[in-house]
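note to self — DONT lose this again. spent like an hour looking for the file last time. sequence + predicted structure for the chain T wanted, 296 res
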Amino acid sequence: MERKDNVHPLRKAGGSASLVALAIIILALIGASFESWYTVDQRERAVTLRNGAITGVAEPGLHFKLPFVDSYARVSTQSHVVKFEQVEAYSRDQQPATLVVSVTYSVPADRVDMLYARYGSIPSMSARLLERKVPDQVKTIFGQFTAISAVQDRAKLTMGISDALRHSVEDQPIHIEGVQIEEIGYSPAYEASVEDRMKAEVAVFTRQQNLETERINAQIAVTQAKGRADSVVAEAQARAQAVRLAGEAEAAAIEAKGKALRENPSLVQLIAAEQWDGKLPGTMVPGSAVPFISVK
């Protein structure tokens, strides 16, 4: 006897549909469970949102969110650099200049929610905030310098722009790490005049150096001449002193000899006897005595 299947075809179709729906639900739950977890890198923060409203800031690590309800937006806290190629400004002496300025900035970790609420993203903040603030501050501070001092005191100019820019964004979700003036360009006519002025200053400086050298050489010559004159004077004084001392010695000797002769009259006869060679004079004046020494 043949067995017949009494299951209605519609009931079979309904059972298959239920299995498919159950499988879809299971897959959706599995997918949602995977979407419920996310990680935040050390170099960023995540602004957490519930139905589009900010609920907080997620720190680095693993985090959970409710599927289809919660979301998050990553915000980098690393340093960023934006470069302004053509910033036009006038110096204090009304010289037009074109500056190339780069700004290094970052978003403080405790202000990422403020950044998201005000600007939505870092590129949007850079376009709406820095592109307006940087040229304004560069023009203001550059206008306090002359064209020459802006070049000669570039470090001071850079510091002034950096401080002014920091002050202008104190209430904003940004930290200005540094400002670099990469180039200051003037008009060709002004640069030519500066070059001519520098050449003139170099020529004046060279002339001053030559005059100073000549002055030093003259001082050396005077010093050397004075030294030679002092040497001649010293030598003359030494000779005069020697003559004076010799004269004094000779006078003293004569004086001593005279005194000895005055006090000892017989000393003359003694000296004559000591010096007589025993010969009488060959000629004598008539009536004169024989020059002889009396010995008693």
